[in-house]
Structures are given as C-alpha cells and as structure tokens.
Input
Amino acid sequence: MHRLLCFFPSKSNPLKNPISPFRNLPIFRTENPTRSPLRPATGFGLHPSVPTPPNRSPLSRFHLVSTNLSSLIHSTGGTRRFSGESGGREALHYDVVIVGAGPAGLSAAIRLKQLCRARNTDLSVCVLEKGSEVGAHIISGNVFEPRALDELIPCWRDEGAPIEVPVSHDKFWLLTENRALSLPSPFDNKGNYVISLSQLVRWMATKAEELGVEIYPGFAASEILYDEDDKVVGVATNDMGVAKDGSKKETFQRGVELKGHITLLAEGCRGSLSEKIIRDYKLRDKGQGQHQTYAIGIKEVWEIEEGKHVPGTVLHTVGWPLDMKTYGGSFLYHMNNRQISIGLVIALNYRNPYLSPFDEFQKLKHHPAIKSLLEGGSVLQYGARTLNEGGFQSIPNPVFPGGAIIGCSAGYINVPKIKGTHTAMKSGMLAAEAAFNVLDGGAQMEMYWDSLKRSWIWEELYRSRNYRPAFEYGLIPGLAFSALERYVFRGRLPLTLKHGKPDHEATDIAGVHTPIQYPRPDGRVSFDVPTSLYRSNTNHEHDQPAHLRLRDPTIPERVNLPLYAGPESRYCPARVYEYVPDEKHGMKLHINAQNCLHCKACDVKDPKQNIEWTVPEGGGGPGYTIT
Amino acid sequence: MKILVAVKRVIDYAVKVRVKPNKSGVETSNVKMSMNPFCEIALEEALRIRESGAAKEVVAVTVGPAQCADTLRTALAMGADRAVHVDAGAAPVLPLSVAKILRALVQVEQPGLLILGKQAIDDDCNQTGQMVAGLLKWPQGTFASKVVLDKEKQVATVEREVDGGLETLCLDLPAVITTDLRLNQPRYATLPNIMKAKSKVIKKVTPEELNVEIKSDLEVVQVTEPPKRKAGVIISSVDELIDKLKNEVVSCNILNCK
Output
C-alpha cells in the first residue's frame, strides 16, 4: 500500500477538512493514535486510521466504523475509520518486535538477550511467525557454514544442535540429457555441514525461548504501524475469522498491534512488509542502488535406499535440463537417516514464458545419474521458495526510521557459494547489537548499516559480486568468467558488473517461443503438483479472503494471457493460478489461494507486477519440518 | 458447576503421516503436533456453556508426556481456567487407562460435566468417552451435534448424530458428552491470551498419585500403510470380463463394460 496514495498528509486534521463521505479511497496507512498529543485517550481520534485491505466488504467496515462517534459524522463511505484505539485493536508493547522466526530473526533475538545478560539489564523481545510453528515456512538446501553460529552460540556442538553431518564429498557435474560430466568443484565446503534448516531453526527457537524471547507462531504481521512522524512503531497482525467475502465469521478475532521501540523485519526473501518499507523509504537508492534479482528453488526430501546413501555428499549440477540462456542448477545433499535433499534452482529472469520450474525439476530427476539414486526411495517432503541472487549490487540500506531489515528480506546470499544462512544470521546479530545500543545507550540505528559495511558479510559479498552478473552473457561465458574470478581475480577486478533487466521485465512475449512439452510424471520418480503439494503439508483456512491480490483485475486476461500465455500458471510451484474457461468467451484466471506455498514467485515474476502477495491468516501455509 | 474437558495431543491434521521404517508405529519425530480437532470442539463447547452462565469453571486435562503441556497452554489460551497434566511417560496410553485416569480425576475435581472429543485422529478409537461413562456409571451423550444445558433442572439435552439421523437424549447431570464435528466452530486463541497463558500454572499429577495403574492389555505388533490403490482396468469385451472374474479378481467393481 503505497503511502503516497494516502489521501491527506499525516498532520492534517480531518475535522477541519472534512472529506466527502462518498469518496472511496482504497489505500491507507494506519497511524499510532496514542502518540499524538492531539488525540484524546478515548473517543474519536483525529487522524485517519484504516488498516483496511482493499477488498474488505463494506459490512465489516461499517461494523467497526459504527463503534466510533466521529466516524458516524464523517464516513458513511466506510473506508475511513477514526479511532481511539486504532479501530478497536489491543496494543501490546515490547522493546523489540521481530517479524519472522527464521535464522536472521532468531539470531537477532538471541543476540539481544545475550547482550542484556552481559550488561545486567533486560529488554522485552517478541518474535512473530506466520507459520503454524517455528520452522514451518523454512526451506533451504542446506549446506551450512557455521561461521555466524560459532559467534552466536559458540558451544552449539554441546547443546544438541541438529548439525551432525559434515560435508564429506564435494561434486560438481555438467549434465547433458544422458551424461554427467564431472568438473572440478568450484565450492570448498570443508568445515561445513549438511543440515535441515527447518530443524536448525526449531532448535534456535528453543535456545531463544530459554533466554526469555517470546515467540508467537501462527500470527502473521500484515501491517506496519506508523506514528505521525512517519516513523515505524510496530506491526499489527491480521484479523482472523474473516470469510471469503469479507464478512466476519463467528470466530472473528480482531488483529493485535505489537508496538516496539525497534521493529526488525526478518521475513525472508521478498518479504511483504519489507518490500513495502523498501519502496516507501526508497531504501534501494540509499543502498547499493541496483534492483534485487531472484531465483526460485524447488526441493524434495527423499528417503533413499541404504546402499546409495553416503552422508555428507554434496553434489551440484549445471546444464541440463536448463538451456544456455537460463541461469540455474541443481543440488543434491545427503543428510542423515538415509535422507537426501534434492532440488533445482532457476533464476527468475528466464526468458521463455512457457518454462515451468516445477516440470523442469521433475525432468531433472529422470536424468540417468540422478534417477538411479532415487529409485526405490520415497519422497518425504516437497516445497519451494524464492531466493535472492542480487548479491552485493542489490543490497538496500536496511535501516528505516524505527527499525531495520535483516536477513534475506534485505538480501545477503553469497550466490557463487550458494549460501545465505550464515550472512542472514550475522546480519541479525549486527542489527541486534545496534538495536541494543539504541535502546540502552541512545545511539542511532544507522550504526547497523555502518557495522554491516565493516563486517565479513560485506567483504564476502564484495568478493563474490561479479559471478552472477557474468551469466547475463550466457552459460559458457559465465562459467568461464567464474573460473577466472575464482582462481585469478578473486573479486579484485576494479569493476562491478551490473544486473540485467529486473526479473519481471525479462520475460519475452510468448510469440517468440514455442510451448514446451513436458513429459508426464511417472509416479515413482516424478510426480504431479497435487501429489507434491500434499507432501508439503500445506493448509490454509479455506474460508478467508484470497491473500493474492491483483492490483488491476483485468490485466491477467488483457495482458498476461494474450501476450505471455499466462506464465503464472506455469511458474507457480503450487499451481495456484489457473486459466479456466469461463461462461462468456475465453479463459479466466482462477486463483486457488489455498495451495499457496508462500514462495513469492508470483510477486517477483508477474510481468506487470500486478500480483501482490499479502500475508494470509496466520498459521496457514506449508508445514515444512525436514527441509 | 465445573466442567472437565479432556484433550489430547496428536499429530496435526494437515501433516502427511508416514509409517516408521521398522513398522513399529507412525513417525512422530520432526512432525508437527497439535490439539485433536474434536478436543478443540469439546473445549469450545465447554467455554460457551461457561459464558452462558451455566458453569463456573472450565478445567482442561490431558494425559501424556511432558510436551503435552503445550496443548494445555493452547487450552488455557482459548479460555480454560485451569489445567491439569497427567504425566504418564512417553509410551502411548490406551483408552481404557485414560478412562481410569479420568475417573480418578473426576472423583477429585467433582465436575458436573465431562466433555471429550468423540475420537482422536491418531488412533480413531472412539472409546474413551464411553468407557469413562461406564466406569463412572454416568449417562453419556456421544457424537453430540447440539448441547443445551438446563441449569435449574440439572439436565443436558444432547442431539446426537447417529447412523440413522439425529437422536435427542436428555441426560441427568453429571454426565459425559463427546463432541462431533458439527457442534461448533472453535475460537482462535488470541495473542494476548496466549501470552497470559504462558504464565499460568499447570498442575502436574502422576497416575500413581491418582492410584491408577497404567497397564496395557494390547501390544501393537505391526503398523503398515494401506495397500496402494491400483489403477482401474478398462475391459474391452464380455469374454475378457469373464476370464478376469474366473482367474484374477477376488472382488470387483463393474463400472464400464464395452
């Protein structure tokens, strides 16, 4: 919700400038009423305060409006709500509010509490998590570099951390349709571990709770709270128990406001609140300047036959099934308990709108070298998520008035290493240190940006900044340049390559490509989407408003379908978007929001950026446990 | 009047369940657990009865290992006044033992109503409620889809979903009610309530303190997945059908014959 579209500036008094009650403005921001000196403690407030999502039914708006005296005078149109307590929501106060219980969020929480203990003080820290439990929305390869964890919890080995499988073999293959050519591995994973990030995060949550951090899974932060100086003062969870048409069900519960002196956003890649903050405060321009680029990763966890399993084996491939112009590759990591993680990562600046990442992944599994490994095994879990590939050039200034953005929401993945967990954790720790100094010592949050630039994150990302952009010139030039970078230049070239077009602009129109015929799944090694979705334990309360919003509802049929052949029906790994025949003439977009894996691919790749991913009712979404 | 609600911690209903490789049971490590959906409905009904004024206190009780305290915290967050945790160790406790424990607790707490979910989604036993009623010699209204309490007459009118339709029973309190799906829609536990529930005290009891001996008369020998459903075969002629009936098929479903 862009703040520039808010009807009047923050300090005006609507009583003096009454708006026409019939004006119906869809986009607002919420203000913090208790901070305004003009606002009385109870009764009607003087500032517009409407956390209404665009498709709320007029009925619910009227209900909340009618509880307020001034609103009866001013807004029969219903979209504007005056409030004494922000529309009747309860407010809870913390020193630090963290959105997202992932590696970055939990590292920040743990670090804050550690600093409190060291200085004999205390800060109240609250972590909100939209998944039904901690770790439910965490999915990652994952080959873990323990650098940040060694700094955070030095004795993790003795504390039962689920980090047990050291990397034993590092393999790198170039795949053709039938062959696998072994190349020297560009990775050096000595000292790293093959883990399930979901399990690690759950362990980190127990550590955080031991230190006194309050973690609340099942609550989705859907809205940023501002005060009258446009400073962020917290977040609010969404209302629960709202029916599909916007009316209130009998289980309706109003959302809750969590006010924090500092708000840290750790929502992961393409976080919905983080993107809003980055846009509103123009953080990309204030940072490294380039736009963020993304990839989508689709992964399965398999249990394979005993003889084929070698714990600690790390395999990466490039080449088939992707073509020379599409950046991406696959990974296959052997964990313990005969489990392996296998996945395919495809950069989202692919050109062919007929590409379906899910089907490319199913194709990959049929490669002879990979199929032989999987045969006889069974799939335990499936999932997908976007990841950022912009690296150094795309880092935004993560500090905004009232808080900061940490982890993948800002984007610290080291793309050539394919690791981002350690940098995400370190960024959380640095933000926690800055926040502690703000709350305990009166410093400014900007010290987070400064400490980031002086940390090993910066140095690591600087050295690896040119690998990914070199692939704009194709697979072979990219590989050649990568070899040069790795063995000769090591990041010391005095130039920084720029990214190509933003991912959503990179899609060609469908006319210049031919549709790709994907083979049918065989049910043993490759599967269809419903079977895979079932394995992701995805569930949403079905009777709720669709959380995938179209900014212009006509664009799918006017632009996406005729020009791009409806790419959202292909890149979504959960087949949320379907074009179905409608009664009148052609095809209509049907959104199965209940399938959503919260991967954010649609938010990234939609050609007109028409799809806005917003957060559904808390507790819904995938249920990852071993990914 | 006090209402006692028995809840159970089970594998979350949205999780894809897997059999352990050694076939001794279902995989429960690294799997999301939550309150049995029918138990949520039972708790919701107890809360509504309290809110209508017919009862004073709702006590949630669970039997299970230490992690079950989370389920009780959810119950407290939804609105239960007190919680009791009967720690019976890590081994699964069978319905008869649970029923004996509940009988002992009932004798301690003296509730006017005992509400349970009709069955747990992990074992689908549908036994505990009926067994407790038998042990206590209390009237029972199972598969309740509607419950109306009359405070003065101390009577509960229960509409039950049975195979033939709906049956209405009148039970003298104290009674046992087990809840079915359509009874109510459980409320969400709000964030402030979850916060408050974290600091509430959960009373811990062991079966020995209740003088209940947990012994299992049943031993689980093997757990296997149901056989995978085979694809249907389209038969092209009557002769082929007869051939298949004679030689291959034990039971068959004749849907389409050309």
The longest strand of chain B covers residues 140-150.
